[in-house]
Automatic annotation (TrEMBL), chains A, B:
<dbReference type="Pfam" id="PF00586">
    <property type="entry name" value="AIRS"/>
</dbReference>
<comment type="similarity">
    <text>Belongs to the HypE family.</text>
</comment>
<feature type="domain" description="PurM-like N-terminal">
    <location>
        <begin position="52"/>
        <end position="157"/>
    </location>
</feature>
<protein>
    <submittedName>
        <fullName>Hydrogenase expression/formation protein HypE</fullName>
    </submittedName>
</protein>
<dbReference type="Pfam" id="PF02769">
    <property type="entry name" value="AIRS_C"/>
</dbReference>
<dbReference type="InterPro" id="IPR036921">
    <property type="entry name" value="PurM-like_N_sf"/>
</dbReference>
<dbReference type="InterPro" id="IPR036676">
    <property type="entry name" value="PurM-like_C_sf"/>
</dbReference>
<dbReference type="InterPro" id="IPR016188">
    <property type="entry name" value="PurM-like_N"/>
</dbReference>
<dbReference type="InterPro" id="IPR010918">
    <property type="entry name" value="PurM-like_C_dom"/>
</dbReference>
<feature type="domain" description="PurM-like C-terminal">
    <location>
        <begin position="169"/>
        <end position="313"/>
    </location>
</feature>
<dbReference type="InterPro" id="IPR011854">
    <property type="entry name" value="HypE"/>
</dbReference>
Length: 344, 344
């Protein structure tokens, strides 16, 4: 059988020779530096290296089940790296290490797995994080959907930094670094045959290099939250709830691409609840909002940054609303269920 | 609908109200202490607490896809805690924190999920580890097999301790703490209708309290490796390969239950390649083997501990063999593929 025709079999997850060959030839070749090459049951990381960067370990985990596996702007491999490192970055942590665990459906083409693992390795290299430990499981045909990836991230939070979704205060400004809903719209276009020629691509990107200079220079950042599942509306609603304040967005300030708006109108979706994978909301004290905005606009991932709203008095805790161009105010209610399944 | 009839829906993984209700009512109730309750995107753990225990962070990850979800002696929840903490313990690490990520198939009964999450919480409590961060994804019916769980473990390795699968030396003794193959045999009995009335139960257990006293008292421990996928034969073969030595086991010293032997004879399986989930191999210098054996036998998880073989000269690197009761020597070859899929 030619390499192009090879597929993953149950033997690749069984702990025997086939599994070790797959680990050696595919995973170690792609990710192999440092602890992973030792092939011990656990990576061993010097605590002194961590302590030199801060005083708290940050730990976060995400499983990725996106369908399709590849979409404009990214794939499940890139997403699995960026998604987890963003969950570290929004806590102010410097992302350092990742674990990577694969659940593979029997029959997955080997060349596809190689491509996705290669994309993952590239995203990790670009972000300066190391994949230090991993796991491979294979389940029978029909018992998973091609490939699921879990990544768990370890980072370090600098001493003195304390971001929390519970710390937004009335008068604070709300910023975003880019367009709303690109990831959700791109995945939807890749999945459904909507007869639309899409120029939309996922915004999938690692945000720590965008975030860290603002944290270093602006002491008035209250919190950051990447707007993934649940979208920008979802995370702002969480911040409003945890901080017991209201948040009001200004509709005409929201950076949304016309293609995304058109798609949402067609399907009856609200772009504020579409997922993003390279976009974060930031709440910051009013005095430093313009400075932060300027910093973001100077970074490639923040070119389209905007101040999109403000934090209101706690008279309406958890309330998220939208000021329309005509001066009206519309309440934004987080949907109970979903707009789109499996977008990350 | 009564609580007993409720099932997981796609809405429970969509980032909206249903997901937050599931997290609050099920996961936070079961696991909730400390960082998880903060509901930030990342757990924050003081580095000073880690540094007080050692000089290296240990990090390990495993996804669990066992079928069936419940079996005699355990379930996927208990397995997901014990399996990962054992991967820390065999490196000499004190297990401290776990992440927990769930991929749930739409339609999973809520009461079953509650039972499995409860089992996970109980295993973590017993082991003294905290579940500090998590994730929930739901995929459509038919796109996963009921439930997969990933856990990533963080521990700390005491200064001066350096175990490695590459450090076995000729003359070293090989010990195991319990019966060979119990987990694999129990899962097989739970899965197949073999017409056997099984008294077999999985050995699923956390081993750190068995391992740590031996490491504290015996400086001659070369390495430990829990004998999960690939079984005892698989891990000893890895040790022999990494250390470039041979390992010879004494068949009559192997602790194997008669029921396991009977099942293996019926199905043509080799018990040395059956999975275990509460059993570790240890390689130790000959002078301390009896002392370590006595320590293990004094612990409930080591009552059936035995010295089962020894490390041979490097003339046959990676060679694993079995001395039969009749004085012959049989070569043990790790199977390329699998004896049993999805045993962990």
């Amino acid at each position: 059988m030619s390499r192009k025709e090879q597929t993953i079999t149950l033997a690749h997850g069984a702990g025997g020779g086939a599994m070790h060959a797959l680990i050696d030839e595919l995973f170690l070749t792609a990710f192999g530096d440092g602890p992973l090459l030792q092939k011990e049951d656990q990576a061993r990381l010097p605590l002194a290296d961590l302590l030199a960067r801060g005083d708290r370990l940050a730990l976060t985990t995400d499983s990725f089940v996106v369908s399709p596996l590849e979409f404009p702007g990214g794939d499940i491999g890139k997403l699995a790296v960026c998604g987890t490192l963003n969950d570290l970055a929004v806590g102010g942590a410097m992302p350092l290490y990742l674990s990577a665990a694969f659940i593979i459906e029997e029959g997955l083409p080997l060349v596809l797995l190689e491509r996705l693992v290669g994309s993952m390795a590239e995203a990790a290299r670009e972000a300066g994080v190391s994949i230090v430990t991993g796991d491979t499981k294979v389940v029978e045909r029909g018992m998973a959907d091609k490939l699921f990836i879990n990544t768990t991230g370890v980072g370090v939070i600098p001493a003195g930094l304390s971001l929390s979704i519970g710390s937004a205060r009335p008068g604070d400004q709300v910023l975003v670094n880019g367009h709303v809903g690109d990831h959700g719209a791109a995945v939807m276009l890749a999945r459904e045959d909507l007869g639309l020629v899409g120029e939309l691509a996922s915004d999938c990107a690692g945000l720590h290099e965008l975030i860290q200079p603002v944290l270093a220079q602006c002491s008035g950042v209250r919190c950051l939250r990447d707007a993934t599942r649940g979208g920008l509306g979802g995370v702002l609603s969480e911040i409003a709830g945890a901080s017991e304040v209201g948040i009001r967005l200004i509709e005409r300030e929201l950076p949304i691409r016309p293609q995304t708006l058109a798609l949402c109108e067609l399907l009856g979706l609200e772009p504020l609840f579409l997922a993003n994978e390279g976009m974060t909301a930031m709440v910051i004290c009013p005095e430093q909002a313009e400075q932060a905005l300027a910093l973001w606009r100077g970074h490639p991932l923040g070119r389209h940054a905007r101040i999109i709203g403000e934090v209101l008095a706690p008279s309406s805790p958890g309330r998220l609303s939208l000021l329309t161009p005509y001066g009206g105010e519309r309440l934004l209610e987080v949907p109970h269920g979903l707009q789109l399944p499996r977008i990350c």
